[in-house]
Amino acid sequence: MKIERRAGLVILAALTALAIAIPVLAASPGPSSGPPGQAKPEKSAKPDKAAKPAKGPEVAISLTGTITKGVDDKGRPTFTMTAQGKTWTLSAGPSWFWGDKNPLAAHLGKTVTVSGTQHQGDTEVDVETVDGVALRASGKPPWAGGPWVVGPTHPGWKSWMAGGKPGHGHGRETAPGQLKKASPAP
Fold it and tell me: DSSP class of residue 21?
């Protein structure tokens, strides 16, 4: 009689588990919406940010003309050249990096041949050489590496960065709580 009872309880437990599992297994495998009223709103494009148009392929270009200087809306110098019936904006790198020491300034007012690259359909030229002389050494540009490498002229620089990265070789003197004064002997 005990064996029959145990077998009956095992069968009853299996049927109960099956009754619970069937609806769960039959449910849709899609993501749940969560509790009622807790659904996340769908993300939409921000109305104030317009999508940037795709840039065309980068192509080599060579232009001959006179370099002229202007000023952008932030007061930084800009350099242009009129050639091939267009006014070209010349770039030797980011204007925040060069400030007043842009290498194109040495050629201001002179008729020169610049070589570089541009995105097809764009009028900005990334100048690599002026009259066959390279503007900078090959490899990584000097403005690469972010504010930790470039320093205070980088637009991402913060005043707290002046002391270097915390915990990287500044010694115990500047680490908080590391120099504890010895308690006086009793």
Answer: H
pTM (predicted TM-score): 0.55
Sign of the Cα pseudo-torsion (86, 92, 93, 99, in order): negative
Taking CA 13 as the corner, what is the angle to CA 11 and CA 14, rounded to the nearest 5 degrees? 65
Residue 81 β-bridge partners: 67, 88
Please name the amino acid found at residue 164.
Answer: G
In this structure, how many other beta carbons lie within 10 angstroms of the beta carbon of residue 16? 10
- Structural tokens at position 31: 């993501």
What is the fold of 58-134?
OB fold (Dihydrolipoamide Acetyltransferase, E2P) (2.40.50)
Phi-psi region of 80 (alpha: psi -120 to 50; beta: other; left: phi over 0): beta
CA distances from 50 to 32, 42, 44, 47, 119 (A): 33, 19, 12, 7, 20
Tokens describing residue 177: 């709580």
Q: Give the helix/strand (H/E) hosting 114.
A: strand 111-119
DSSP 112: E
Give me the helices (H) in 32-131, please.
Answer: 95-98
Domain boundaries, given as residue ranges, for the chain: 58-134
Model pLDDT for residues 87-108, shown as the tens digit of each residue:
999 988 887 787 778 889 899 9
**Which tokens sit at 5?**
């009872």
